[in-house]
Amino acid sequence: MQNVATTNSAEERAIMSKEIENSSADVAVQGFDPATMEIGKEQEGRSNHWEVRTQEQSYAFLPDQEIDKENRYGQQIDLVELTGLPAGRSMFINENPEVGSNPNRNKQHGFFFTADNCIGCHACEAACSEKNDNPSHLAFRSVGYVEGGSFPDYKRMNISMACNHCDDPVCLKGCPTKAYTKHAEYGAVLQDPETCFGCGYCTWVCPYNAPQLDPVKGQVSKCNMCVDRLEVGLKPACVSACIGNALDFGVIENTPEKREQCKTHIPGFPDPEITHPNIRFQQTKDLPIEMSRTDSMPVKYHKDSEGNYKPVVDQKQGKAKHWNFAKLNSRENPLVLFTLFAQAALGVFFITFLGALFGVEALSLFVASDMFLPLTVTALVMTSFALIMSVTHLGKPMRFYRGFNNLRYSPMAREGLGLALFSAGCGLTALFSLPSNVWLTEFISTNVGLDLVALTQALPLDTLVKAAGIFAVIGGSGGLFYMNKCYQIKARPFWNHLQTATSFVGNSLSLGAFVGGAIVVITLMVTQATTALIEQASIVFSSAFIIGMLIEALGLIKHNSDLNRSENEGGAAHYIQCTTFGKTYLFRNWLLALNIIAGVSLLTVNLLGYNEPALLLIWVALALVNCFTAAIGRALFYILVIPTTMPGAFFWKNKAFEQHARDIGLADNPATGVAPLAH
Q1: Domains of the chain: which residue ranges?
Q2: CATH of domain 328-649
Q3: 62-86+99-286 adopts what CATH topology?
Q4: Residue 649 β-bridge partners
Q5: Which residues, in sequence order, are CB contacts of 520 under 8 Å at separation 6+?
Q6: For 238-244, what is the mean pLDDT?
Q7: What local confidence, expressed as pLDDT, does residue 655 receive?
């Protein structure tokens, strides 16, 4: 095929360069005329710096059409007018400063897909992978399909999908490293793999599964719109390779030749309002009322009264419930530990410090004691461990510092900043608490010869401790808020729910109350504080423990109720939760309910004045059970989510095939195209 020819050799480029030097300046800037162009002469009279395939056919050239002013979202197509950026800027592709002569280079371009014409040959996939030198487990463009009806009235609709270079790219806003740029040139959303540190957050927020995380290289890459080809008037490689005339490319809203429609969605396509994607569809053939996916996701599409297809839950496996504890393991395990430990650390410090700040006598006494320093250090150590787990999740852990590059937009960057500020606040609190800690000051004075008390007697230590603690609370609150915002993703309805916030806040209170209560109550008992103070501290932490579990339980009830009624990918994820992991899900919920009942009962007993030592052991047992249920819940949280992506391809991005390949050992063959589980 002509479209898979290699780039010009060095000798050919040298000859071409000589010819260009001898040509006139007028010839060097004139446009292509594909109708009269002799095959193999595409680059004569033009800059030779762009390495593109030779011997392109006439259909591979961009048309010169009259340009619309706005797209259907109301966005200006002329991006120079919209942004105010100067025209004629270099995109510096392949480290080349040359500027192409495409007259429409500052207009928003996009793909056109005619579903009626696609035969599922995967030529677009092959051309894209060949041009970008992708390994077998990555595919910037994927072909999948939905089907419906029964023999002999069987219908199938193929789908070819890549990056849609959206007007509102959520990948750009979500990326903490600023690896993405929305260019005024062609409206291309380009990503720099070298800036990326491999967190994979862009793969979460994108509804189209366009960014591809390579676990081998530890970085993300994606479709670059073949801007090097666009600069010399050529369409992207995938479009030029399409043998069925299913793919086309040009200025968005300019309906290509021999096409009738310019729709924004077809069966299986996510809601275009999420990102305003620059792709247009034609699908004229009549399709059945119900279209099914061929991948493992329990989602199908029903035609409504207006002729639009909406996702519904496809109950493929009935209602049988299973345990499947082994399947809770995923590459997101570090994030399970990160979120749980970070939330617990926040709870430990918040309950203790704020309780003292608001006048709880027992906690005020504790904060003024020598044990407040170990508690603060405990919260700091837990947060540090959580951040280390977060860093180990990265494809390139040594580049973690880049996570603060996009504080303007990225909730992930703000989450990291909030936890970093909390850690700093805890560190300052510990530092200012040090001179009043009798144990340490005596140890340092005896062994080091440094009198900390004398050095700091002029400092208002109590005020500084209080100020540092408030700083930690503010930073930690911001971190917890943006930890929740990280998962409020329209492309992942299972996460985009109140339950995410209730789970995070609830775990912070319940887990924090366990750790903080153990330290505070034991300290008060050892220091022989009055029974009233011990009871007061016990009531505060046990109440926080119960309130945390209640918040989580109420969120779960609401989540279950909403997703049982929903007919989208969130409902499909909940269906898997109630079937594939049904017994595990019920087990977690029953344990949580029993914990709440037992906790309320014990608190009532405490309030009635019964404070036997055995009750403390029961509280510890309840807390340990809660840690177990929190871990199960958080693992389910990550393993169950179903994004609003197009149906999976025949192999690539088909989760059922990937799991099957791993189970039978086929995934060990790199040619299979199954990515390793490493992050």
Answers
A1: 1-55, 62-86+99-286, 328-649
A2: 1.20.1630.10
A3: Alpha-Beta Plaits (3.30.70)
A4: 144
A5: 352, 362, 363, 366, 371, 375, 537, 541
A6: 93
A7: 76
